[in-house]
Specification:
Blueprint (H helix, E strand, L loop, with lengths): L15 E6 L6 H13 L2 E7 L10 H11 L6 E6 L3 H7 L4 E6 L2 H18 L2 E6 L9 H9 L10 H11 L3
Parallel strand pairs: 1-2, 1-4, 2-3, 4-5
The structure holds 4'-phosphopantetheine (PNS).
């Protein structure tokens, strides 16, 4: 009878995980996942991807500043940036797993692809947290669009982010 392939090494390590994303800007949905990840792990590093594929509404520095502000009450959460491959950042910073939120089935295919590739590349695990259904429709691009055309996004983002969105986009 064959025995299961059980991995037992590394059990005593600090559980440092990464919550990566674009965060342009951070929403209440992101905060829900970050705070729940912080309850489950020793350290959570929220990392803003700084690869220059597309221009955001906010600069990477502005996104980091907003994230630092809205996570300041979470003592085991830090905010940083990364360039290049996420798995390389994880290796360099002794991060054992990536934590992502799953909102709906529509997220699944994309997230699964990245999770499997990241494991294949560097044996970095991905852990999924099921989004609070209250936020299952919430994404940064929708928030920006609603705000651009004068809709009310005050219940979807932290107050500081709401103020910055008003300043940047106003009501069209
Ligand atoms: O908020 P997003 O846009 O879903 O974040 C995507 C992000 C930044 C987490 C993802 O694009 C990423 O990890 N980019 C880094 C480049 C990389 O490692 N690519 C290989 C993924 S298998």
């Amino acid at each position: 009878m064959g025995s299961a392939n059980v991995v037992t090494e590394g059990r005593d390590r600090v559980r440092r995980v990464a919550c990566p994303g674009s965060f342009d800007p951070v929403t209440n949905g992101h905060l829900d996942i970050i705070s729940r990840a912080a309850l489950l792990h020793d350290e959570v590093i929220v990392v803003v991807g700084a690869n220059q594929s597309k221009q955001g509404l906010f600069t990477v520095e502005e996104r980091v500043a907003m994230l630092r502000d809205v996570t300041s009450g979470l003592k085991n959460v830090e905010v940083g940036t990364f360039r290049g491959l996420l798995v390389q950042y994880c290796k360099d910073n002794d991060i054992s797993a990536i934590v992502k939120g799953l909102r709906a089935v529509s997220d699944f295919e994309y997230e699964m692809e990245m999770a499997q590739m990241n494991y294949r590349l560097a044996e970095i695990e991905t852990l999924f947290i099921a989004a609070n259904p209250v936020y299952s429709f919430l994404r940064s691009s929708l928030v920006k669009e609603i705000c651009r055309y004068g809709g009310d996004v005050s219940s979807l983002v932290p107050e500081l982010v709401f103020d910055q969105l008003q300043e940047r986009l106003g009501s069209a």
